[in-house]
Write a structure and sequence with these properties.
Length: about 350
Amino acid sequence: MTFARRPGYLLLLCAGLLGSFPPASAAVRAQGSKAPDAKALDTKARDTEPPDTMAREAAGEAVRRILRLSTGTVETVPLEAYVAAVLPAEIGAGAPAAALEAQAVAARSYAVARKGRHADQGADLCDGVHCQVFLGLSRATDATRRAAAATRGLVLAQGGRVIAAPFHAVCGGRAARPAAVWDDEEVPDLAPFEDDACLASPGARWTFFLPRTQLPALAARLGFPEARFLEVWAHGDDARVSALRLAAPGGKSLVVRAFDVRARASEIWGWSSFRSTDFEVEERPAGYLFSGRGTGHGAGLCQAGAIARARRGESCAAILAHYYRGAVTVPLDSLGARP
């Protein structure tokens, strides 16, 4: 969702830019990496679960083992308490109730679909943007607990399977197709669409100037340090840039994924430089001016849009139906799946 998850909606808020760049937390699988077989992963996860975890699950209490990245320890927490605790970092505890509930369904879906993602470390999920930002059960508020309780057991599904529901800070007016972002056969097939709800939000529009002298540094991280020119090469069916072409003197060139360009640029200049893959490029004598829309990968729930829609009276169900086109919201037990 390996894409280092886009800084969240909350980060934009802290930066004084948005009011919460959903800690991109919207996290979904790492770019370009292949997800392990679901059955094999689940079996492996069960084999490594400690007795207390298995006992709690046998008693009917769904739990998640959370890898605390700062210490390397694993904390076992009830699933529903986990959902309530990740909402403040992901969308902000002050979001309207319907937006919190929509985020709760997305967070629960992700936690169910990605159970065992850190099986090699004896955990299900980590506490960072690689999975979902979890700062501890104490971070849950009355509002986020109510959101988790109001949606208890509800998940997003497609083809009879729970999806790892993606979410991001600001789509900027149009959503991305998940398959255009992540090379993963388990990524949900969500249709791209236009969205006007977040257009007034910070991060909906951005510019970034790439000096010509800095292009080689970016190109080097993409395996083509001799590049001196770039241009947009292709767009996806979601209208976002899907590929750019790097060119070197003498005619040699390399076509690279826009997602990879964005990831490498963020490593050099920070996440707020190259905010999305929805942009236009203008070549100038001194470099390249990128004019873009949105912050984050753009797939699934737009957190700024969800907040705006909730404020104008839309329900949780309406918000989920708008942002997860091609998926349905159902009780987890109706799928015959374990939480």
